[in-house]
Design a protein that fits this description.
The complex is a heterodimer of chains A (310) and B (153). Chain A is built from 14 helices and three strands. Chain A is mainly α. Chain A has one domain. In chain A, strands 1-3-2 form a three-stranded mixed sheet, sandwiched between helices. In chain A, a hairpin with a 3-residue loop joins strand 2 (106-109) and strand 3 (113-117). The longest helix of chain A has 41 residues, at 2-42. Chain A is elongated, with a radius of gyration of 26 Å. Chain B has 153 residues and is mostly helical. Chain B has a domain at 109-135. The N and C termini of chain B lie far apart (75 Å). The chains are: A mainly alpha (310), B mainly alpha (153). The interface between A and B is large, with 112 and 88 residues.
């Protein structure tokens, strides 16, 4: 009888002993899963993965601002964008689109999805300025800037979740990236693009590389500088705060700081280059339905002063 | 005697077993309370960041290195089918020009994904680009590897 009791007690103790092991195995499985995700996060995205994250990010961007439906204007933006983007260092298929907002900004998503706002187009005065803005964004794509930020965030382990944790019904997975992870990357990409600064190093790189793309394409290298210079002055008007607030210090370094750096940078390029004001006016025209507040005399004067007419 | 030994053994095993289950539970709870503490700290930091931003804005206003800010930006017309576009197309932005947090958290709809797919097909023909470059007296990049065209799913 004593033997039976001893056996019974041993079995019970053994059973109790397996309980912590349950927790240990859970930890091991979690560790393996996290390890797999960290491995994924350290890998540079393949063209297919970049395209999938880019498209999911584009859908979210369109959700926030809406898409401006004007095929001829979109085509023109794509021609200018591809003219400068052809000087990029890696093969990317670019898609330039217009966001339906008066806010002044432009955004580069992974996979070559580049958005410029209607407000930006309305306030640009020639093709070299547009080329400068688009070249800056193409340089972000070319340097995988947003991808690096998103992958960096995953590495910190702050937001590691499994695909099942997030709503990913609309997004299909691609080789090496589960649908849930694509949706997470896209959310992070949009949140970063709309609420954070990429960092001074990445902005400086994009300004430098963008000016290089524009200059090599034959545009006036000071295009972006001239546009930002006009905006820096406009940003001093409290009435323009809502339109310029995000660009001026939130998602990009403050305008005056960038203008100063771009002025120094543009001095390293030979003078000249195409400005193409007439072609811009022919292709970007918001027509009679425009709820335009006409630019003041000082605005026109300021723009003429800052652009070298060609 | 035998019966009391068995009862004691069963009780002991139950206590050991229960404590084994309880340890991960308490660990989880302490983790959660730690997270809550972190969240509270984060909110406090956010508040102080906001104050800092206010000071920053004040300083920027004082400096005004680019003139008196007389420029009025142009507002263009917007499409009628866009829900986000309001009277001046700045709906969904805070007065300081940031996207409203509520809008940022909303998931994209099926329609948004369809539009994104349309954008994915936007591109320019090589011949059109060549013509555009020539007309603008611009430059073509030296030939390099073919543009990657990932399969559209």
């Amino acid at each position: 009888m004593n033997k039976t009791n001893l056996c019974f007690a041993t079995v019970l103790l053994l059973l109790a002993g397996t309980l912590p092991a349950r927790a240990q195995f859970g930890d091991i499985f979690n560790g393996i899963n996290k390890g797999r995700q960290i491995h994924e996060a350290t890998q540079e995205w393949t063209p297919e993965q970049e395209e999938a994250v880019g498209r999911a990010s584009a859908a979210k961007m369109i959700h926030v601002f809406g898409l401006y439906n004007n095929s001829s204007m979109t085509n023109y933006v794509n021609l200018v964008g591809n003219t400068v983007a052809q000087f990029g260092t890696r093969p990317v298929q670019y898609h330039f689109a217009i966001l339906d907002t008066d806010m002044i900004n432009a955004f580069a998503m992974p996979g070559g999805y580049v958005f410029i706002t209607r407000g930006t187009l309305a306030n640009i005065s020639n093709e070299s300025e547009l080329a400068g803005v688009l070249a800056h964004e193409a340089a972000h794509v070319d340097g995988r800037h947003l991808e690096k930020i998103v992958r960096g965030k995953k590495l910190t382990g702050l937001e590691v979740q499994t695909g099942a944790d997030v709503g990913a019904s609309q997004v299909g997975g691609v080789a090496g990236l589960a649908a849930g992870l694509i949706d997470q990357y896209a959310t992070q990409a949009i949140t970063t693009a709309l609420t954070q600064n990429y960092g001074s190093d990445k902005e400086r790189d994009a300004d430098k590389a963008g000016m290089d793309f524009a200059a090599r394409a034959g545009y006036d290298p000071a295009g972006l500088r001239n546009f930002l210079s006009m905006l820096a002055e406009a940003a001093n008007n409290p009435a323009n705060k809502q339109a310029t607030g995000m660009l001026n210090g939130k998602t990009h370094p403050p305008l005056k700081e960038r203008v100063s750096k771009l002025t120094t940078l543009s001095a390293t390029y030979p003078a000249g280059g195409q400005v193409l004001e007439k072609r811009y006016r022919l292709n970007v025209n918001f027509g009679t339905g425009s709820a335009a507040a006409p630019a003041t005399a000082s605005a026109t004067k300021s723009r003429k002063k800052s652009t070298s007419s060609k | 005697m035998q019966r009391s030994t068995r009862t004691f053994t069963v009780l002991l095993a139950l206590i050991v077993g229960a404590s084994c289950w309880a340890v991960p539970y308490f660990q989880e709870n302490s983790k959660n309370s730690g997270d809550q503490q972190k969240q509270t700290d984060k909110n406090k930091n956010k508040k102080s960041d906001k104050d800092k931003d206010k000071d920053k804005d004040k300083n920027n206003k004082d400096e005004s290195p680019f003139g008196a800010g007389k420029i009025n930006l142009l507002h263009s017309s917007h499409t009628s089918d866009t829900a986000s576009a309001g009277f001046n197309g700045l709906t969904g932005l805070t007065p300081s020009g940031e996207v409203e947090a509520k809008k940022l958290k909303e998931p994209a709809t099926g329609d948004d994904f369809n539009k994104a797919e349309q954008v994915s097909f936007i591109g320019v023909k090589a011949s059109s680009l060549k013509k555009f470059i020539q007309e603008g007296k611009l430059n073509t990049a030296p030939a390099k590897t073919e543009t990657a065209s990932p399969k559209k799913s």
